[in-house]
Design goal:
alpha/beta, nine-stranded mixed β-sheet, two-stranded antiparallel ribbon
């Protein structure tokens, strides 16, 4: 599902949930989690049906019958098993008169209301995953039957069949932002967009071991890591051990729901004991293979003495004010992430852009960090990537197991001008853009084979588009082995399509106009999809050819420790990559300036004439 479709889904779900405000006595805090619980059930059902279909493909047959699926089958596929009475279609299709239906709950008591049936469904789900016990909402008897039935119906949205990643977390933040804006962005806390999570996971490349997210929120880092490990042919629950800390109980519950729906298990601690500033709740300092996080930015008033007690500050304390507080905790987080890693560990995290060259004690910590040789990659991210905030950020990557030849080097990537616009307030990296950025990291690490495999994937994808086209479709001829040639041919074909589309729509009668326009929109969207793949392939190939890393002005640079020292130990990518050269547009500057000057003089003369005319008219009117 693309972001536009997801935003529409969020708006639709909110409209339904907002009816509770007008039709129940519950406060927003009271109905927030019950509403999210229904979304959880609907999303869990989507994944359940998808995995069930996959299981049934190879299901054995006995006595002419396909063997029924079991809970253990779903565990192997990293999905949550749902008993019949907890499946969403069962809840949506309840009989009208429940008192006569004879429904019985897991405690043997009759179920006489929709709220009781939904509570029973939640209890059944908790039986399938012990980490959910006491986590799922069970207050549905507070809703009247007609209202709850309507919510179930509206949330039965097929768009949820086509979502991935931390969709629950995304919708959760949207709802929080609607329920109480100050909660959604409190203390610099906000949902981590899938683009940034994927980039972090792709660069770190988790394979097996302990993963800690000490600011885990709704668990997006765990979900994406699980997908990455499973897609690599391993089983995430066997290969990975997930640990999380989350100060806000609401978020921790959501994290556990998110893990469960993706068939993952983890140890998540919440509340005061999970405040990472003051507690290493899992005692993991020096023990983690991977650390990933999107911590709250620029937090102030952190008690310095309490923060120092846990012994996770290998480079010393940041600046402390007269009240014995850390006035900006960014470098507490940065120090913690490094301290949690074992000798071969990798970390990736989101951080405020200002942290890359902040001064004072921050600079001293940054210098010591750089001198370890473990700062691996730095990526600048532009505005509008966050869902409820418009601010830039930087992705930091540590690698304590760097190759010897890279210990003196750091890769800087400035990706502020490389993204896809979703709408006026939101940008993202597409999967192909993520692969291209990842390819730069591969070449820096000397992993040329991965880069070549990506080129092969581009060629194969474009070839598949050509083979799927009709025999007389110009797309077949437009796609060649040369990316540049393919892009030019597809652009030319797009122009012809648009021209023909306008002709056909203009010539159509009123009855057929909408259908013809819709058909052309679909064709143009398909061509645009192919063109985008070709353009992304060309973007990469023009810079690195068949697999040779080169610094690209305005995009990437490998800097030595000496160069970083010369820049005052700044880790701001823009300070190293410079500015991309501006392409010559073929216009003679002096000649064009003369033309502009003439145009300006002419406009001024017209303006003076107009003012004179207005003055004369006013005089004639006696004004």
């Amino acid at each position: 599902m693309d972001n536009k479709a997801l935003k529409k889904l969020e708006a639709d779900l909110w409209d339904a949930a907002d009816n509770l405000r007008a039709n129940s006595k519950l406060t927003s805090n009271e109905y927030c989690m019950p509403v999210l619980g229904l979304i959880f059930l609907r999303y869990a059902y989507s994944r359940f049906k998808m995995v069930e279909k996959e299981i049934l493909k190879d299901r054995p047959v006995r006595n002419g019958r396909v063997m029924p699926v079991e809970a253990s089958d779903f565990k192997e596929k990293a999905a949550l098993f749902l008993p019949k009475e907890a499946q969403y279609d069962y809840l949506v299709n309840l009989p009208e008169d429940l008192s006569k239906a004879g429904l019985v709950g897991i405690d043997g008591r009759p179920l006489n209301s929709v709220g009781e049936v939904v509570n029973n469904a939640m209890a059944l789900v908790e039986q399938q995953d012990e980490q959910l016990v006491g986590i799922l909402p069970n207050e549905y008897t507070a809703f009247n039957d007609s209202l709850l039935s309507e919510l179930l119906r509206v949330f039965n949205n097929n768009v949820l069949n086509d979502v991935g990643g931390d969709v629950i977390g995304r919708i959760y933040e949207y709802f929080l932002n609607k329920f109480a804006k100050n909660i959604a962005s409190d203390d610099g806390v906000f949902f981590t967009p899938k683009s940034l999570v994927k980039m972090i996971v792709n660069v770190i490349e988790p394979a097996s071991g302990v993963l800690l997210d000490p600011a885990c929120g709704s668990g997006g880092m765990f979900v994406q890591t699980g997908d990455f490990v499973n897609n690599a042919g391993m089983k995430a629950n066997e290969a990975m051990t997930f640990y999380g800390q989350e100060k806000v109980d609401y978020n921790a519950k959501l994290c556990l729901m998110n893990l469960a729906v993706h068939g993952l298990t983890g140890v998540i601690k919440s509340g005061d004991e999970a405040n990472t500033f003051y507690h290493d709740a899992h005692h993991l300092a020096g023990k983690c293979d991977y650390v990933m996080a999107n911590p709250p930015f620029n937090v102030d008033k952190v008690n310095a003495e309490s923060a120092e007690k846990e012994d996770r500050l290998p480079f010393g304390m940041p600046g402390i004010n007269k009240a014995k507080e850390v006035s900006n905790a960014n470098y507490l987080w940065i120090s913690y992430f490094y301290a949690y890693l074992k000798d071969t560990g990798r970390a990736g995290f989101v951080m405020a852009s200002s942290a890359t060259d902040s001064q004072g004690k921050d600079k001293d910590i940054r210098q010591k960090l750089i001198e370890t040789g473990h700062v691996d990659v730095m990526v600048s991210v532009g505005n509008n990537f966050f869902y409820t905030k418009s601010l830039p950020c930087t992705l930091w990557f540590f690698d304590k197991g760097k190759k010897e030849e890279l210990l003196d080097k750091t890769l800087f990537i400035d990706a502020r001008n490389y993204y896809t616009v979703v709408d006026r307030t939101l940008n993202e990296w597409t999967d192909w853009q993520l692969k291209n950025l990842n390819a730069i990291v591969w070449l820096y690490r000397g992993e040329t084979d991965k880069y070549k495999n990506l080129l092969t994937e581009y060629h194969q994808t474009l070839s598949d588009y050509a083979n799927e086209a009709e025999s007389d479709d110009p797309i077949r001829e437009a796609i060649t082995d040369d990316f540049a040639e393919t892009v030019e041919k597809l652009k030319e074909y797009t122009k012809k399509q648009r021209k023909q589309a306008k002709t056909d729509v203009d010539a159509a009668g009123k009855r057929d106009k909408k259908k013809i326009q819709a058909d052309w929109d679909q064709k143009l969207a398909h061509t645009a999809e192919i063109l985008t793949v070709a353009e992304d392939a060309l973007w990469l190939y023009e810079k690195f050819g068949d697999g040779v890393y080169a610094d690209v002005p305005g995009l990437c640079k490998i800097a030595s420790r000496g160069e970083i020292e010369e820049k005052g130990y700044s880790l701001t990518p823009g300070a190293y990559v410079g500015v991309a050269p501006v392409e010559d547009d073929g216009v003679d500057f002096e000649e064009r300036m003369q033309e502009i000057h003439k145009e300006l003089l002419s406009l001024q003369a017209e303006s003076n004439d107009l003012m004179d005319q207005i003055s004369r008219n006013l005089k004639e009117m006696g004004l």
